[in-house]
Amino acid sequence: MAKILTLHGVNLNMFGKRDPKQYGTATLAQIDEQLGALGKELGVEVECYQTNIEGEMCARIHQAFTEKVDAVVINAGAWTHYSIAIRDALAILTVPIVEVHMSNVHAREPFRHVSVFAEVVKGQICGFGVDSYLLGLRAAASAIQ
Ligand code: DQA
After folding, report:
1. What is its pathway (predicted)?
2. Which of 26, 43, 68, 74 could lock 30 by a disulfide, CB 3.0 to 4.6 Å apart?
């Protein structure tokens, strides 16, 4: 069975408590549960991982390379806008990467309009709340060869 790794970055463990106008009220555990349920429907294994430590995120991406996961869905939170370290780690992967955001980053502050991952991901989905993740998982599953 194909395996899709979903990566959640810095501060995303606070979903459900932080800024509900931007991010809704679903907790990260509830999002992961929905991803798992959709994975079953799509016939793919879904693993979810969250960290607030940049180096740990890089190490998990390296592990994804070694493990040969089939695709990655990533919401890196604020790291999206400046972490060259995570971008370089993602660039090591040869499998499809889908970048997702709960909020519409383009309708927010200018610093959120830039993703340093843009050139190394297959595509981006933002602005649909939890559905951004679910759409991202569908996109990743269909991008797997
Ligand atoms: C976010 C958008 C980022 O700009 C922000 O720093 C986040 C969450 C989103 O899911 O909308 O932490 O990635």
Report:
1. Metabolic intermediate biosynthesis; chorismate biosynthesis; chorismate from D-erythrose 4-phosphate and phosphoenolpyruvate: step 3/7
2. 26
Cα(131) to centroid of ligand 1, in Å?
14
Q: What is the structure's pLDDT at 105? A: 98
List the residue whose alpha carbon is closest to atom 7 of ligand 1.
Answer: 77
- Tell me the percentage of the chain whose pLDDT exceeds 90: 99
| Alpha helices (runs of H) in the chain, residue ranges in sequence order | 20-23, 28-42, 54-67, 84-92, 130-143
Atom of ligand 1 nearest to the CA of 81: 4
Q: Is the CB of 103 under 6 A from ligand 1?
A: yes
**26: DSSP letter:** -
pLDDT score at 145:
66
**Nearest partner of 72 among 57, 84, 85, judged by Cα:** 57
Residues of the chain with pLDDT under 70: 145
Atom of ligand 1 nearest to the CA of 79: 6
Q: What's 93's DSSP letter?
A: -
Tokens of 27: 């907790």
Minimum CA distance residue for ligand 1 atom 8: 77
Q: Which CATH architecture has domain 2-144?
A: 3-Layer(aba) Sandwich (3.40)
pLDDT of res. 83: 99
